[in-house]
Structures are given as C-alpha cells and as structure tokens.
Amino acid sequence: MQIDAVRKGIRLTAQLCVLILGAVVAGMLALTLIFMLPTEVMKEHVASSIDIFYTESVYPQQVQGYKSTQLDNETDAIMLLGAIHETDTLGPLQQAAAVPHATIKGENSKCVVLKNYLWDGILPDGESNYDRYWHGYMLYLKPLLLLMDYADIRVLNMIVQVFVLLLLLRELVRRKLDSIIVPLGLFVAVVNPVATAMSLQFSSIYYIVLFSLLVLVRYGEKILADNRIYFFFTLVGIGVAYFDFLTYPIAAFVVPASAALFLDEKDWKEKILNIVKWGLCWGLGYVGMWAGKWIIGSIILDVNVIAEAFGRVNVHSGKAVQENGDMLSSLQVLWKNIKVLLRWPYILLGAAVFIFYEKKVIFGLNRRMFLLCLPFAILCLIPCLWIALLKSHSLWCYWYSYRNLGSTAFAAGIMMEVLSFSAEKKKRLDRRG
Where are the bilayer-spanning segments (predicted)? Predict the structure, then answer.
C-alpha cells in the first residue's frame, strides 16, 4: 500500500511539473504572437477615448465616499501603455517577457503619461519594463484595441460580465443548485460588478471566479469528480497567476472551493482534507506559474527578474507598515479592509441575509451542525489570513484588496445554506419520529 501511495505521489508530482512547464511555454508563446500585432491602430483607438482619463482622473469614485466604487484608472493606463508600446530594440519574444511601456521624465503617474503622450503630443523620453508579471490580459486587450477604443472595451466588458453571470445563474437553476444563488449574490455585491466592468484591472479575477463556478456546476459530477486537483492547479491556480495584476487572487480559490465542498457529499473531516489538498494545488499552480515567468524572463532578457520579484514580495508582505506615522498590526490592516464594507447598503444586506437564515439555522445549532460548518468557516478565514500576510499590499491597496472578503461572504453564504438544509432535514425526521 505504501509503495503504491509513493508511486502515485511521484506520478502526480511529475504530471504537475509537466503542466507547469507546458503552461509557461504556452503562455510565453501566446504573448509572443500577440506582440507581433501592429500597434498603430491600437494607439489611435486609445487616443480616441483619452478624454476618459481627463474627466475621471486617476482613482475616480463612482459614488463619492464609497471606496468599493473606486476605479483603478492608473493601472488601466499601465495596461494600455503596454499594449500600444512600440520599440525597435526588442523583438516580440523580448517584448512578451518585458512588457515595456513609455515613460516621461519627472512624471510618475501613468495616467498622466498617457494623457501627455496621446492628448498633448508630448513624446515619451524613456521606457520601463514590467517584467515580473505575466500580463496575460494582453491576449484579449491588444486584439480588442485593433477594433475598438477604451470606452468601447469598458461597455463590452460590462455586457460580457452580465451575460456570463446570467449563464451561470441559468446553469444553477438547471442543475437544481439554486441554493448557491444567494451566496453568489453576496460575492457579487461585495466585489461590485460596476467597478469590475469599468476597470480592466478588476475584471480578471471576476471572470475566473464566474467561469470556475460555471465549470464546476456543469461538469463537477462527471469530468471533475476525481480531477479537482488538476482543476485547482490549472484553471484556478495557473490562470490567476497568468491573468491577474495582484488584485484579489485568493477569492479565485475560496469561491470555487466552497462550491466544490457544497457539491461533495462527504463528511467534515474529508472536506477539511480536501481544502488542504486543493489549497496546496492552487498554491503550487499559482506560485509555480509566477516562478516560471521570473525564470523564463531572466533567461530571455538576461536580467535578474527573480531578484526583482523577490524584492517586491518582501515589500508587499512587509512586517512593518505605517499609516500617518503609526505602525499598524495585521489585525488593523484587516480592519481597514473590512471598513470598506461598513456602509449602510452592505450592513442592510448582511442583516437581510441574517434574518433570512436565522430561524432555520441559529436556533437549531448543535454539535453535528457545528462540525458541518467547520470546513466553510475555515474557508471564510483564508481571505482574512491572506490580507494579514500581505500587510503592505493590503494597506496601500485596501480599496480593492478588500474584494478578497467577497469570497468570505460567499463561503459564509454556502455555510448558511448547508446548515439550513441540515436543519430542515432534521425537522422532517423529527416530524416522522
């Protein structure tokens, strides 16, 4: 038995290594092909909607005072600058590895650089590489810019997100999994779909979450029944590292993991074991794909991308973080993220959900029900730990890193559904008895 287990472990490790290597090669090849596209038309299309950056500025709030409605035009400007950049010194492969963008001396804001370059006609006097990220979003951004401008892409993004969400809801109803609809609503409300539509920066994780749920719901009982390790390793882990710009990545694990546990009829011990297995696979896919970019980038560009990347990791997870001169603990940083949601609309939503579930669940709690909810309670805490571990990033970018808590809301909603079902089942059994 032990020999078989060792062989199985070695075989699985070899398969995952092959998957990572294949993903790294395929990812770099796809970006290389995309960087062969001409940029002149792209530049014209970005210029035609440049007034958006003038009227909205860097970090506009769709509703003043609500950080959850704040857009990230600064990062979108970086994405657009990278998409339209022309260089004679780098070939397509080097551009795919470096993803350079134009700079103007003395100007740090990429939003302002974009405006000065394409509106005021100030020619860039330098370029900067953003080589530690994959920038997988270029696979759709550059082709779209050949057809339309930034404003068009925003509206298209909104339409596609709505249709994907509706497709997921339709599938949930068809599969008689409407119990997932309320938790999904909680996630969407916290993430704010208006912001994910208007900011390309926030879209990647939102799409990955919706598509991963769609795949789980549609194929979970058949194709994925015994292959969830590969699902979390590839689609969720590798996919997040490839497309995301470090926004709220842990949500892409916690949401599908919560749904997968809900779909599995296993006891609480097996579910906790699955959280560990899936979490490790997600982490290996996520970290492995990042590491692949740093290694292949270092080879292609002949620079030490690995050292630069580790330097940024140390910065984002810095132990000492300050705000207004005061040192903040991990709990204080977590609280700052939570406070984004401490506004009346979110409070009323939470109260409504509590009232909806409390009669079914709260008064029927017992030891068995506590054990049922334990795996989901663990998933609820994972985003909190993520925010606490990445203290610096979670403090600087709290106005979007708070979206990790959307997956906490989803896991909590799933937990309430599990407890509600268990309470109803107990009542029926009691009546029969």
Answer: 12-37, 151-169, 181-210, 230-263, 340-357, 369-390, 402-423
At CA 310, angle to CA 308 and CA 316, rounded to 5? 105
* The pLDDT of residue 357: 82
Sites in the chain below the pLDDT cut of 70: 1-2, 4-5, 221-226, 318-320, 359-367, 422-433
CB 296 within 8 A of CB 21: no
Per residue in 3-49, pLDDT (tens digit) is 766 777 788 889 999 999 999 999 999 999 999 999 999 999 999 99
